[in-house]
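Sample intake sheet
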Amino acid sequence: MTADHYAALGLAANASLADIKKAFRQKASFYHPDRNTAPDAAQRFAEVQKAYEVLSDDDARQAYDDNRRRNLLDDPLQTAQEIWQAYSARILSHPSAL
């Protein structure tokens, strides 16, 4: 499954650049391996960094958004299941992280 960069930052797809920056700072601070001893902190930190990398660059974000729309149209049921699974896994593992 492809990473959902918006979910990694806890944002909606229409988030502004200011929202993206704010969410990145909060999530990066929370998941930084020097501050968070959870076993998946380093992985989550890397996901947050990658999400910010893509979503803060206009061209990369446009390509990412276009790909997301295309995937939703290709197989909406599978995409909905993947989104739900990722969302529920995050809630069950870290309810305060949302």
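Comment: The chain has one domain: 5-97. The domain at 5-97 is CATH 1.10.287.110 (Helix Hairpins).
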